[in-house]
Amino acid sequence: MRALFKHHAGTELKFDAARPKPVCGARDVLIRVSKVGICGTDRHIWEWDTWAAGRIPVGIVTGHEFVGVIEEVGSAVTKYKPGLRVSAEGHTTAWLDYNARTGNAHIAADTRIIGVDRDGCFADYVCVPEENVWPVHPNIPDKVAAVLDPLGNAVHTVMAAGVSAKTVLITGVGIIGLMAVTVAKAAGASRIFCTDIDPRRLALAKKLGAVEVFDARQGDGWVGEVRKACRGDGPDVLLEMSGAASSFDLGFRALRNGGTAALLGIPSKPLVFDWNQHVVFKGATVLGINGRKMFETWYQMESLLLSGRLELDDIITHEMPIENFKKAFETMICGDGIKVVMSVNG
Ligand code: ZN
After folding, report:
1. I need a surface site. Which of 38, 88, 99, 293 has the fewest CB within 10 A?
2. Considering the entire predicted model, what is its pTM?
C-alpha cells in the first residue's frame, strides 16, 4: 500500500508506494482510508522537534485524523461489518486501568496513539481496535469526518468548561481555537472574545462568531477591555488554546473571580505563573484538557454537527491528494492553510 512514514531521525516524511498492508488482529478492523487531516502533532513529527525526537519511533506511519471505509474485520469483531463509513478515536487503551473503567479512558495510563506510538492513517489502510471505531452519520461529509479528532478536542474543552449563557475568552485561535469559537457559539456562549498573533485567524474568529478579537502582539491592553465588556468582572470562562506563557498570565488576569479555565494549549517549557493571584485568591476552577472523552465527546460532537450550527468550511481551507504531501505540509506550516485535508482514496 501507499504510506507516508518517518524514514529517519530528522525532518520531513517519506512516501512509500510499497508498504505492507497492516495485519488485522482478531479484535481489530482494517479501514481503507478516504481522507486524512494534518494535525499540529504531525507538524511536530515533520519538523522533528525535541518532543518528536523523544517520542516517535523511526519507521512509523504517521497521521491520526481520518475517515474511511471498513474493508475487513478480525475474527472476534462483533459489531461492525465491511462497507461501513467510519472514523476512529486515535487513543487506544486495554480498558483495564482505573480511569478506563471509570469513564475517563482518554487519560488511561496505558494510552497509545495511532500515528504516534503505533502505525497511523497517512496510508491506504489503517488498523484500529473495534472499540475505537466511530460510525460516521451519512449527513456528515468526508471532509468534516476527516477532522473529528481535533474537532473533538474543541468540543471536549468547551463542554468541560460549560459555556451556555456565559462570556468566553479564547486565547489562541489556531485550528482548535477556531473550532472552539464555532462550538462555543453553537453551545450557547453569550459573547466570545479571542486573542491571537495572526490577524487572518482573528478575522476568521470574528466571522465565526467572536464579538471582539485582539492582536496579542499589541500589548496587554486587551485584558482591561475584555474585563470592561464583561461588567468589569471579566469573562466567566477562559479557554486557553495557545500554549504561550503570556496568554496563560493575561488570560487568567482577564478571567473573573470564580471563573473556570479549561487548558488545552501546551507550553513548550515549564511556566512561571502567579498561582496566588490567578487561581487561589481568584477562586478559579482549572481544568486540564487532554484528547476527547471516550465516547461522550463523540456523541456531543455528532449532535452539534447534525444541528447544522457548526461552521467548519472556512477552517478546512485546503484539500489535496496525499501525493502532494510536501505542498500540504508547507501550506499548513507557512500559515496560509488552517486545516489541510489530504485525499487518499476519494
Ligand atoms: Zn490531531
Report:
1. 99
2. 0.97
